[in-house]
Design goal:
With 140 residues, the protein is an alpha+beta fold. The chain is built from 3 helices and 6 strands; from the N terminus they run βααββββαβ. Strands 1, 2, 3, 4, 5 and 6 form a 6-stranded mixed sheet that branches. The longest helix is centred in the first third of the chain and has 16 residues. It is elongated, with a radius of gyration of 16 Å. The chain starts with a strand and ends with a strand. The relative contact order is 0.23.
Length: 140
Amino acid sequence: MHENFFHDLKVYYEDTDSGGVVYYANYLKFLERARTEALYSIGFSNKKVQDQFNSLIIVKSCNIEYKKPAYLEDELNIRSFVKSITKTSFFMNQFITKNSETIVEALIHLVFVNKEGKPVKIPDEIYLKFKPYFCDSIKT
């Protein structure tokens, strides 16, 4: 069984449209925050990845399904886990829930690249820290 990263957040006025509904693009920001916190939880940050490994973690693609809306002042939870991994990239499943009900489901393809934008091998130190969060489908 794989482990999960969890991140809680509250919906603020700035996250909503004039009707108090979370604007669709803001869910991508919520997911990014959760991934950043997941990276922090294993002892890294985007700046540390850049400085220590001369790498960046970029989003190559994103598949997101909006099931139900979130509203102003809702309290949300984001669950994230690594679905699969290759030498240079990984897929992360993320679920946003409100009151234990999934309202958004996303599959994000993340790639490690150098400063020129070319894919590079995921540093072993990061790979090993992420390993407990992998689902069963690890690819080489």
